[in-house]
Protein 1
Amino acid sequence: MHEERLADRAYAGIVELINTDDLQIGDRLPSETRLAEMFGMSRTVVREALVRLASDGFTEARRGAGSFVKRRPSERLGSHLPMQNLAATMGSYEVRLVLEAEAARLAAQRRSAEQMLVIERAMDSLRTALQASGPAHVEDMELHRAIFEATANPIFVSSFDHMHDEIDRILRAGVDISRSRPPAAINAMIEEHELVVDAIRAQDGDAAALAMRWHLWQGRKRLMP
Amino acid sequence: MHEERLADRAYAGIVELINTDDLQIGDRLPSETRLAEMFGMSRTVVREALVRLASDGFTEARRGAGSFVKRRPSERLGSHLPMQNLAATMGSYEVRLVLEAEAARLAAQRRSAEQMLVIERAMDSLRTALQASGPAHVEDMELHRAIFEATANPIFVSSFDHMHDEIDRILRAGVDISRSRPPAAINAMIEEHELVVDAIRAQDGDAAALAMRWHLWQGRKRLMP
DNA sequence: TCTCCGAAAGTTGTATAACAGATATGCGTT
DNA sequence: AACGCATATCTGTTATACAACTTTCGGAGA
């Protein structure tokens, strides 16, 4: 089961506090001790939540003074936005189509020899994993991430990580994606990936973008025909 | 000055540990007690660092088992990767160009009447802020975010938030972006935004995407002519 | 010998108490 | 009213203890 830690409740509680009490940027929120007794938990746990809030850029702790609102967490995508799984999956393909196609193009244009090697290795792993009819989710992700890294743009890479986390979170709540596939689909998946890798090897940006679009489109059709 | 907390040293120490000891994804790192005596600090502080590492997606704590490497921090954009600010800014424009153009297209195609109203209001705020020659960074961000929200795709919205965080983090380390602007640039910025909003109002996806590309391109030229 | 079960050891999660170091508050003096 | 200082408040850090959970390992039983 999906155990919930106390710090999660504290985190949500503080976010709610900021919103309902309408704390503005710069406002001080209650002391750790006060929050602890408000939520009925120890100061240790409240501190853990505050550390994460600060890490997320929402609050800032000033020693001896208190914790202050740095950015309001208003309507960010969170657990309170329950989407249908199907719509969410569709939505994820929209974002992937945009980001991954352009990443493939940049990767083709800029890849170094070392990065090409990493991509080839990831492709090999994916091929063997698919041919073994086992779960290939990790290998697939590694290949796509290698392509993002070949863009030589750290923001692209971090965007991939973020997108991947979000999609994972949605899919994990829904149907298992690593179900059994017919052999025809396996060969198709290998071929689609190879088209992308070939284009990157040939440093043909347009072809890489096109192949990636094709691959994602086929994947979407495979999931919901 | 910039007081250093012990947890910062612990955070850096663990990152270094992962890199130098070459811990791979899935590997377990030393227990909190062990790390505490390694770094010569209390377990509480080590826990604080681990919470932040988990929040950043580098590690994952499994109760009763230990903390495990989830993604290696080496290749991620971070404090230990001092990029030239110029290159980073260029990189951010690449990502924005891709994401925002497509977001504008989807927003134009799908916007509801309510969402259009939010966009109009954001546009008004931005216009007055720019005409007052004050800092308009917040208003600009609000408008762009409203456009992402009009896509009706939560993953697009969360990608925007993430991208914005990353870019902010880079720009904050560099030159202040809200410097004084010549009046001609102010009018140009207003006009560019209005072109985007007009296209969304007219529900013309291609025009919206094009206008957004144009706006971002002009912005890039304004920053580094 | 092999398998299975359960105790023990190890690890994270939480609570409590205490103190150090920094900051804000408010009172009293001038 | 303005200034200075004592005092209260708050975060940062340490230490200890226990609960909840996971892994390990050795022994009992087949």
Note: Residues 6-69 of chain A form a domain with the Arc Repressor Mutant, subunit A fold (CATH 1.10.10.10).
Protein 2
Amino acid sequence: MPKLGMQPIRRRQLIQATLEAIDELGLADATIARIAKRAGVSTGIISHYFNGKDGLLEATMRQVLADLGKAVQERRSALGDAPAKAHLHAIIDGNFDRSQTSRSVMKTWLAFWASSMHHAPLQRLQRVNDRRLYSNLSSQFRRVLPKRQARDAARGLAAMIDGLWLRGALAPEGLNVDRARQLAYDYVREQLEGGTQRHQPRASDYA
Amino acid sequence: MPKLGMQPIRRRQLIQATLEAIDELGLADATIARIAKRAGVSTGIISHYFNGKDGLLEATMRQVLADLGKAVQERRSALGDAPAKAHLHAIIDGNFDRSQTSRSVMKTWLAFWASSMHHAPLQRLQRVNDRRLYSNLSSQFRRVLPKRQARDAARGLAAMIDGLWLRGALAPEGLNVDRARQLAYDYVREQLEGGTQRHQPRASDYA
DNA sequence: TTTTATTGATTGACCGTTCAATAAAAAATA
DNA sequence: TATTTTTTATTGAACGGTCAATCAATAAAA
């Protein structure tokens, strides 16, 4: 029953099937045969719509990345010029959105992280995401803190978010979202309030 | 020139070659043929000394894990009953030891993390390491903080360490060890000093 | 009739494992 | 000491299996 306009439908189906396959089998065992079977199509379709397996994997990572960006942006757009703290909490909440904390998505992220170290296209995608998070955090901290402190706070919070996330992905009991958010909130509060006794490195420390 | 006692020599060689291969090619392309070639032996040797590829990978992860444990323990053993802060700094320093922050080891860690999600033996190893870090941090914070705060501080610092580490591994410019250590130190200080205004969740928050 | 969608068998490459063969040291024997 | 025998170490070709990609064939709109 080939009609016109199958492309977006098939692409969605196959990306979803890829996420499921990586969740259940891992990236190494997520073969195009298994992905195609899960999507209910033949293997040839993958090459037809994605130019091979690499294209499918890249599109899948793009999808997860877009979902993350949307989860953050939706929460922030309602805030207007609310205080920095509100924006920082919104960024945290977005990063721990349901769409990003499901078992399958966390596993996929981890797989893509590892894979991106040896695959330039994935590395670029991953880098864009990294810098966006840092840049968002940094500009919010900058509204309240001097430049150097804002930078360190952003680096620290980014590490905290990724670390909570990583440990949640690895832990058999999964990620406790509420607890993770609270720890990140605590870090934000500590950064925003007590700024005076902080370590003040010289510029050469950052060579 | 086959003599006796080749086993420990070959095992060391092959584990080293595995680290190098994962660094250069990634886990997916680190085939036994390539690993064997890099070690200057034939492929058969791997099965002979490691019972196949899985055994070699497990042994490699064990090696990296043992190095990490040693890096931490060496720093702590000199401290005796020094203040909690000193022990926490030693744990941080151990986690950012030179043996753990080389490009090849960080890549290998990341690969093993991803792989451990679908490979029970690796998952067990990874879990032991995770719990050891948390347990070490927790017991030191416990010397100074009430139970719940100590637990949260340990969870937060563990996430911070892993997060700094992860972001260092992913960043093209690599990990800035001094900066990472300083951010972790700052977190320790904030946890140890300002304990009164902290968020106090009810037990149900931790369900 | 042309275009779009889809199949799935085929192909060629590569993977990990196995194992018979070989070599050299160590141990046993004369 | 000189010799066989046993043990340990090692090789690499062969094997069975799996993978991603290809492409001729087919089917149903347009």
Note: Chain A has one domain: 6-194.
